[in-house]
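Morning!

This is the sequence you dropped in the shared folder:
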Amino acid sequence: MEYTYEQLKHKTVVELREIAKGIEHEAVQGYTQLNKEHLIVAISKALGIKHEHHDVVGVDKASIKARIRELKKKREEALAAHDHDQLKVVRRTIHRLKRQIHRATV
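The structure's back. Tokens below.
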């Protein structure tokens, strides 16, 4: 049976071990001792499953990330200066920018 990364991620450890039991590959050797995260990686490697990344649509992710990096520097400066008002503004701005990226992710 063909599996996707998402299907494997939603299975229990017992189900993943049952899948690994039927696979003859060096990546799944010792599958009974692996935890869920390691089992998913091993099974994915054995079956040649690639993890699909999400795409950001409608916003310039690189510029937003650059802005967040700048704000993190300002956050450190505000922390060092004990400027709680500025700290709050910077933190909220970082949060808003991260949410903007999150909303644009498909």
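Headline: The chain has a mean pLDDT of 93.

More detail when I'm at my desk.
O.
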